[in-house]
Amino acid sequence: MSVEIKENNILIVDDEKGIRVATQLLLEDEGYNVISADCGEKGIEIGASKEFDIAIIDLKMPDVEGIEVLSNIKSNFPNTICFITTAFASYDTAIEATRKGAFGYIPKPFTPEELIYNIEQGLKQRNLLLEAERLRKEKEEKLLEIANEKSRLSTIIKTINDGVLVINLNGQLSYFNYAALRYLNISDFKIGDKILDKMPEQIINLYQKITSAEKFLIKTFTTQIDILPNNELCIEAALTPIANPDGSLAGVVIILSNITQFKKIELIKSQFVSMVAHELKTPLSAVQGFLNIILDDSLKLNEEKKKEYLQRSLIRLKSLCDLVNDLLDISRMEIKSKQREIVDVIINDVIDSTVNFLEIELKKKKISVDKNIQESLPPIKADYNEISRIFINLLSNAIKYNKDEGAIYITSHQENNFIIIKIRDTGIGIKPEEKEKLFNEFYRAKNEKTRNISGTGLGLSIVKKIVESYFGKIEVDSVYGYGTTITIKLPIN
Amino acid sequence: MALIAVIDDDPDIIDASSIVLKSKGHSIISATNPNDGYKIVVENKPDLIILDVMMDEPDDGFYLAQKFRREKINTPILMYTSISKAVGMDFNKSEMVPVDDFVEKPITPDQLISKVEALLNKKKENV
């Protein structure tokens, strides 16, 4: 007959050899792992060496009392099920044994059925104990986890850049981080303080809207608030109601984000858009004005006049087209800074090909170009088209604002880690008060000498953008009426 | 017929406007910057000023209009603007800008004439 192998370990502690051996054989026969000890001291030693499922301990032993062995085992392994066996069963010892943690009391002599029945009951009890302990441990771990989570969350909320505060239905502060107080420009507040009155008006209004609503709605309301004037500190407040477990309104969470930078960018953008709109509309208005008077028969313009106005319209349209191209260049540059094609660019080659490119314009005004360039300059790492754009814009200006039969002097040389290029013209020059505005978008020096020169006002601002994106420098030097020198410094690496 | 000062930094706009106004028998004086504009108004005392909002600097037209009013030059001013509705500016609330009427470029000859006539008639009534 095969015996079912049980995993359970049983310890027998009994000084009476006959009973000890008989019990061991019986239990082994049932499939249990059994270890036995022939005295109390050994029983304590073996009982401490590992955790047994069941211990069967004789009450009366010569060296150590069974109760003491029981206490020892129980103190090490509270879930070990202990039985006390004795031939001198008495009510008192049974109570004492139970008090010390014995699960059962088996009077000697016992039958195999009695023993096995007790052991099975004991094992059931042990499983219950083990399960209970497992649950308890799980619960403890969870509690620890929750505590950790709580402190972690609170650390996160305290350190984030956004302001967080919670105001309850009484208008009291029930949670906050320091960013919130900083953004609201208030200090010295603690949990429980009445804070609602100290809030900006927009927040109070939204808070009242949320708390006085008839129905509880999970909805976030946002508002933008200028905490400091002139766009120095601007925040966005987002108010969201929070509920009690029963679904009723508990208070309002307010998240404050610093949107100062966005506001500034928005302002720059809208200024730029309005400038572009103005610059686009001005030539269109002029052309429309001319076409209107050409088509108006009541004005009785002669053919010559009509032709003149059509010519002037054409010039305005050409400059409008240039402007659109420059604007496209700017937007392309902004995209391009992310996808530049960096190659070795030899500055002297770029200068040569730009001069060739502008040959027709140079001949038209009979302008001579005088180059004094240092041979074998090291190449710079850059996007060829961008560097080329620098020289096209600068040389176009040197031609456009030059006098007829004037000259352009170009020099290049190396100085430490920089290549220095100077482009000097013999043109109309720049007034000192115009110099600082020269690189502004759409700025064009307006005086009697520039009146008949068309331009978009974007060329130099594009040049400056490119030069600075390579950590270079651009300088302008001019004597009004005599000419202008533009100096470009580009780093070799 | 009236003497009208056109102050605009765009010579093409001055010419186109002048032709339209001259066809109605008005005389035109013009300037392309605020300083010259101030001078021709003080020296010639025109019946009407047509003033561009944006000249060299974005606020030039406004400043010049304010300067006239500060100095008790109460000549009617028709202000030319080229941006307004597109960028959300509403120039028609003229509390801050002491001008009599606005017109947004581009402007047709008919519009220009009717605005100018209206302001000249108003001036006559006031006098």
UniProtKB/TrEMBL annotation, chain A:
It is an enzyme of class 2 (transferase). Pfam families: HATPase_c, HisKA, PAS_10, Response_reg. The keyword Kinase applies. It catalyses: ATP + protein L-histidine = ADP + protein N-phospho-L-histidine. Gene3D superfamilies: 1.10.287.130, 3.40.50.2300, Histidine kinase-like ATPase, C-terminal domain, PAS domain. Keywords: ATP-binding, Coiled coil, Kinase, Membrane, Nucleotide-binding, Phosphoprotein, Transferase, Two-component regulatory system. GO terms for molecular function: ATP binding; phosphorelay sensor kinase activity. This is histidine kinase. The lineage of its organism: Bacteria, Pseudomonadati, Ignavibacteriota, Ignavibacteria, Ignavibacteriales.
UniProtKB/TrEMBL annotation, chain B:
The keyword Phosphoprotein applies. Residues 3-120 form the Response regulatory domain. SMART domains: REC. Keywords: Phosphoprotein. The keyword Signal does not apply. GO terms for biological process: phosphorelay signal transduction system. The modification 4-aspartylphosphate is found at residue 52. InterPro entries: Bact_response_regulator, CheY-like_superfamily, Sig_transdc_resp-reg_receiver. This is Response regulator.
